[in-house]
Amino acid sequence: MTVPAKPFDSANDAAEVRAFLAGDEGAFERLVDRYQRPILHLCQRLLGIEESKDLFQEVFLQAWRALPQLRSPGAFRTWLFRITIRRARRRRLARPGPAGLDNLDRFTAESEGDPIELSEELARMRGSLARLPERQREVVLLRHYEDLSFAEIAAVLGIREDAARANHYQGLKRLRRELHVDSGGSDGSRGGRERTDEP
Amino acid sequence: MNHDRREQEETERVEALLRADPGPSPSELAEARLMLKRALARERSDGATPAPAPLRLASRRWLRISSQAAGFALLVALLAPVLPRVLPAGADARAPIDVVASLAGEASAMRARIAPYLPSLPSLPSFPLPAGMTSRPMEMRPSPAGGLLDWIPSLHSDAR
């Protein structure tokens, strides 16, 4: 079901980055091998299934071009996530229509790998995630999907660590409320699908 | 108390759901990877190569030094024409020469600062001194003292 996260090894990343800078193109392929799953997953949750492959491609192309400018090769992982977040924001802003308005079908659509018994609950959860304000969604995704620490999240998003914690708390609270309401919780209403909570 | 417990349980449920998201399927990954492979091949065939970092750093440093030099040249160019006008009417005739000498001193100090970064520079042209002046070092006026910065307040002072 859940793919176990590979242990993160910054020294290994740094070695591959240095090998690439020394002219070993295969080192970049190995970095893509290592990060393709988390990056594509993040792209899917940030922009939806349709646009995720384009974003994935943009992220790694940008990384390939800009890798020589990476000052600390050991920070490759957070750098790559930063590129992903920025590119996703840019794409969201470039969309026609009201800024930040997401078509929820993009997010609740089943992925080919989704187990059947989970699909309904997963779709609800993905829909709720898509309705979170951008910053809260980014923090929740980086924390729960990518296993980043709050310090790393703060570095990726360019915010303070306590702000990352606060956004995480607010994001989970909102998800909790939405899922509770969606599943027919205490207030009995099933609202919120049409609402957009972007600030 | 009961409320806290329920909240905790709900949070755990949300976290469990987030963990249960299986992520992209192997076929989605394969497709995305194929697209990336093609894009990278296109990029390489276009001749785009990541520039080596040291070259970029060197060019950045060169850019900084040349912008400083350009700024200084602009300052000199702006100040030189107005100096004779702003000096008091009865001022010593050599005053503008002293100012120019101060500027030249600043320029040579700056040149000494940036010289290690420059590959090679042609020697500065020499100009003949006006008739009646010797080649011995000029005496600076005691007041205002020394550098260009000390001159600026006197240039902008208002006798009123």
Could you characterize the architecture of this molecule?
The complex is a heterodimer of chains A (199) and B (160). With 199 residues, chain A is an all-alpha fold. Chain A has one domain (10-182): Rna Polymerase Sigma Factor, Chain: A. Helix content of chain A is 65%, strand content 0%. Chain A has nine helices and no strands. Chain A has helices at residues 10-21, 25-47, 49-66, 76-94, 105-108, 119-131, 134-144, 150-157, 161-182. Chain A is globular. Chain B is 64% helix and 0% strand. Chain B has a domain at 59-84 and 94-115 and 143-160. The longest helix of chain B is centred in the middle third of the chain and has 34 residues, at 53-86. The radius of gyration of chain B is 34 Å and the shape is elongated. The mean pLDDT of chain B is 73. In chain B, α3 (53-86) packs antiparallel against α4 (95-114). With 160 residues, chain B is mostly helical. Chains A and B meet through α2, α3, α6 and α9 of A and α1 and α2 of B.
User: How many alpha or pi helices of chain B?
Assistant: 5
Let me know the average pLDDT of chain B: 73
Number of strands of chain B: 0
Largest sheet of chain B: none
Radius of gyration of chain B using CA atoms only? 34 Å
Uncertain parts of chain B = none
Order of helices and strands of chain A: HHHHHHHHH
The amount of helix of chain A comes to 55-70%
Summary, kept brief:
The complex is a heterodimer of chains A (199) and B (160). Chain A has 199 residues and is mostly helical.
Which descriptors would you attach to this protein?
heterodimer, A: 199 residues, mainly alpha, Rna Polymerase Sigma Factor, Chain: A, disordered N terminus, B: 5 helices, 0% strand
